[in-house]
Give the backbone structure.
Amino acid sequence: MSLLCIKVKCAELPIDRGKKTNTYVTLKVQNVKSSTICVKGSDPVWEQDYLFETNRLDLGLTIELWEKGQIWDTLLGTEWVPLLSVPHCNEEGDGEWYTMYKRVEMKNSEICGTRDPTPFRVKCDVRFELPSDLTHEEALYLQRKLDQINESNDEMWTVVEKHPLGSSQTSIDSDYRSDNSYPGPYQTTHHVNETISPHSPALRARGIPEISSVVIPQETQADIQEKLHSDVEVGSETESRIFMPDMDSLSLNDDVERKPTQTLDHPQSETSGQTDTNNMDNTEQVSGEQGNSVAKEKWFSVFRQIQSGLQNTERTQSALDALNSNRQILKNFVIKPNREKSITTIDNISLITRQPGITSALLNSQASLTDSDLKMHVYKKTLQALVYPFSLTTPHNFSDYTATAPAYCYECDTLLWGVTNQGMRCTECGVKCHRKCRELLNADCLQTAVEKGSKSSASKTRNVVRAIQERIEKRQVMKADLFDQIRDVFVVSNAEHKAELKLTKQAAGDGSSDWSAKIKIIVKRAQGLQAKDKTGSSDPYVTVQIGKQKEQTTTIYGELNPVWNQEFNFECHNTTDRIKVRVWDEDDDFKSKFKQHFNKESDDFLGQTIIEVRTLSGEMDVWYNLEKRTDKSAVSGAIRLHIFVEIEGEEKVASYHAQYTCLHENIFHYACKTNGGIVPIPKSSGEGDSWKVYFNSTSQEIVDEFAMRYGIEAIYQAMTHFSCLSSKYKCPGVPAVMSELLANINAFYSHTTSSSQISAHDRFTASNFGKERFVKLLDQLHNSLRIDLSSYKKNFPTSSEEKLLDLKSTVDLLTSISFFRMKVQNLQSPPRASQVVRGCCEACLQSTYMHVFDHVTDDTQTEKRDQADGAAPQIADEFGPVSPKSLTFWKNLSAVLLAEIADDRDVYSTYLNQFPNELNIGQISAGKMWSLFCEDLRQALRKHGESDRVLCPGRDYLNWQFQVKYFYSECAKICPSLAKSVPEYPKWFVDFTLRWLDDNEVLSMGYVSSIYDQDKRKGFETSSQQSLFSCSVVDVFTQLSESLDIIKKLECPDVDVNNRYMGRFSITVEMILQRYAKTVVADFDNTCEREEISCILMNNLQRCRVELHKLYESMGGASRLDGDATGRLNELQVKLNSRLDELGRMFGKMYSPKIEESVKRMGRELSKMKGANTSQQTNDSILAGVLQPLMDVIQASAMKFDRRCEKTVLKRVLKELWRIIMVKIEKIIILPPISGHTSLQLLTAAKEKFADPARDESSRSLTPRQCAILSAALDSVRNFFYEDGKGLRKNYMDQTPEFKSVQHALSLYTQATDALIQTFIESQTYRDSAGGDENSVGEVNVQIDLFSHPGCSEQRVTVKAVCAANLSWNAGGMFSPFVEVDIVGPYLSTRKRKFATKAKSGTSPKYNESYCFRFGNAAGLDKYELQIAVKDYCFLREDKVVGVVVMQLKEILEQGSCACWFALAPNLRINDAGYTILQILSQRSGDEMAREFVRLKSVQRTENGAANQQDVPK
């Protein structure tokens, strides 16, 4: 694993400076993303550090520049930096400008380049830290030689490097990385397995300069450059030019043989210990010119130069061999000039190999584990804390005290007021104090007595010392395990341990008479003070007192958040002294001045803080909460103090906090070592402070006593233990402990008291542990936890309950880190823990899917290979995921994926679903697996679709789709979001499913023919005794229903795809039923002789219509089917109905001869009924006799039909019989038989009618009696067909056109001739009677004038025939046309009804002849019409008609006159009502008006007068 260090410095945005921008940078390495904070402006500056851990150097670093938006962020550009081009060094450089690009280029799902540069640039310093997996011997030996190089002050070399451009794939997701600065000089950053960094105090403490800081003398340039040309690899991505001096003069002799355990002495480090802060600012600068970067090959050349100088020394041969083994690693080092000399803080530190699998940020510096001086010092301090701990201190024995002289309180140094009993006095040590100060006085009584008695030689003092010694001896016996364990932890021999213990006991009895310290206190500021003045503010000042020395700051007037920054220096000679810091409100009024004469505390008290001197060491910058002095005090706020302590004899010793860190870490590693490398988890007592228990009882007592003795805060203990646990966070139970620890650390900083207004961020910044150190620790822990959680199925298997509990604790720990960033660090919008866990889970699921996919592929190919018998070379292609025989693969893949999803839902959800409204691992797993499955499925189906040949039958694809559908349905049950959205997989199967439907249609068509032939051979047997249809219908729809069930079982949620399936299936249904109906109709004529089979066939078609409707509803009906399928099936219903009507007509034709014969017999019976008979009984018997022939036929038929036909078919048959009966009655009885509606046919029919043998001369016209009998007969027939509602509806029979025609004909029989003529004129319309210009045979110009006088009983119509034109006639002889005008209407029997002009020659004759028609006013002029005919005059023979036209007077009644051209037609166009009247009038042979009317309306152009085409006007 390599540690990639990135510092995002700044950016250049060439935009208008008036435009508001808010940008941030996103970094991505492998599956880990981090983002900077948002910075406003066109030149943003971040200066944020990030650390990434990766083992894939073949990948790249993605740098993305984003602009923050209100809803969506905008990507401004992307850059991709190959990791192979990133240098290795431990020193931060100036950085490099990276140009952002618009687009990325992909190859095999990986980024391979960028294009389209943008004007945006980002400056970043990108480097790899030097590898820490060198052995101890290698590191010491290499560092020694590099130190020799650094000591030379010759001219340095320079390097110019060109980096290839890269690109990054756009990513919207980002994670947060805290702002990591480097720790201050007074803070420790010691972690297990810490990577050596130039900013790490661990490296400075060794006295080791940065490995990257190498200076090459000028003399070696030529030699190195000469060797460089021979060693540079061809085709290297990094092009570099190096300018170096000659190295011949460089001394590389190793004078001292070093062992792995020997300390490393730096030339500038004389003593071990921690170096003062100021020394770091005085580091020696190396002159020279620094290069931008160095290629890996160049470093290897330098390494060979160093190696050549070592080959002469046999003592270093083992180190040389070790370095040769790391030849590849050293090629990645970067050489840079040494700008800063290293500073030694704590000596005797060695490098440690980084353990794989643990992030480098969790590596603990080994100062506390390997520095013997520091460990020995901590060992002694621990003995001092254990020999006479605070638990053995003797409380004061206070009693009331009456002072005989002025006395002052030992605690507050104020006067003991009162006449008697002014205060309290300890009878043992003589300490005096106020009653209110008794609880604040916490010094040990015996120790105080020893210290006070050491200044005299009284016997009482010796007794006190003896008492202390006895307690120490007793404790040594009772707590021997404590001393034994501390001896084992620090690996001290028994003799040395006894000697040191003796000295410690002696020092405990002697007190602190020889102890001395210099203390510098800087009172910086206060915040949130109480307002004591009437103006709502205060005038605060601070007093600082140590022993008898007291200092005071200046007064800040009218300020509740004052700033002083005043420095005071003290000398302390007693470890029991306390620093008393009190804040006062200065009062300058008369009352205060008066009180000042009698009381030291004339000003108002604002708060205090008491600090034990014994707890101080080194440098501290801390906020202290102001506390009350009495219960009546009103106190709030906090004060910030910067304290420097220099203890005599311990000037170069680490601070107490550093010493505690050393103690805690050594105990921790000792406990892990004795427990087999596993962290021992102490049993929790369940109490509120159980999280403060870090070790077993013995070890816990050691660290607690040390902390109490030297003032180590409980929060520092917790943070130190958290740091230790970070190096072993993979041990069982450790994540739970870390989560609880961090939660309490969060609570400590974020849950501030109401009296203190210091923010959590400020409190954390002033932490003794170090802000940067802890933030860096959390960042790297967060990164490592994300990496581990990204493989939670591997790291936390379901088979281990212990690991699963650790998984839950890991999520809790991530949540605590997110809370820490938000509440304590006060960061803006840090990523939520749920988002982090979701991203990790998705990454794990993706890797799990890839593993499962490959595993199932191998298993499937292995299984098929075993079955292939020697076809192994083709197995990969034949049975791969996209091969035509891959159904087994996809079935196995979905089964394994469902098992993985079930594990997530049933097992991992219990431990990961800690965010109920934001995270559900079961749903995420189902959704992620389904999406990845769909990607591979789409590619496989695409390859199948692109194949030139059919790889699989349609049924195989259908089975494949059923497997996918089952997998989707199982995922949708778990993930509601899948069920809410429409999946895409049905679209990918559309073509293959349609292919199956095509194949199914072909099979179904052949199946229909076979089942019909089989049904025909069996004589169309009914499917059951109760059914009236045959088995073929059942078989057809059984096959269709099965096909539909298969389509419906696909449960396609995509409406469009389902409509395509149903549309295609509707075509199949149409084809099959059309073919079946066509077969039935074609075979129906052959079965008409057998009425039973005919009825079954009609029943079959009707059953098809019924089953089709059921099938239509099963397909979804009108609500779900699209318009095409609905219209197709509805049209199919109409077609089947038409086929059934066709069968009904064919069936009716079979019965038509029987009905016709019965109607003729009925007509003969009716013709016998002459005269008038009013007897009802006689009429009934006559009616029965007339109907007898017809009723015998229809009654027998109806009984058979009722038994053999379904109800709907029966009604169809009855309707057809009803229609036939009505038609036959009208044709045979009422009206003469005609076959057309032309005038010539009408006349022919009239002539033939009287020759009909079915009617004699007397029956050619129905009498009123016969009409009445016939009307009653029709009612009887209608009642028979109605049959009390079981048959046809009366309304239907009354509305049939045949029945209406019969009734109309009967009604006309009873009317007079004039009434019929008037009815005829009213029913006709002669507009466009010529039928247009094509049918016109000429024109005639006529003037018509109407006259009707109201006082006169006569009406007149004057007609003037002006001329004719364009007459079309082709007669062989002379053509002599004339105009004949006839008036037609009622009541004209006694009037002149016809006039004719003289004959003229030519086709356009002129006449100009007028005529006048006179008639009465019994009827209006609108009841009359003029019939104008142009005829060819023929001598001695009948005139021939040229053309005819009718002018109805109602059309010109309003104008009163008309003069226009009329187009002549070959004949008149008469509607059905007119022809019925003509038929009735034609039967009235004795009526002259009737005969003349029929003749006029039957006129037509003779055949030999047909117009010649060339004579027709154009």
In short: The first strand starts at residue 2 and ends at 12. The first helix runs from residue 136 to 151.
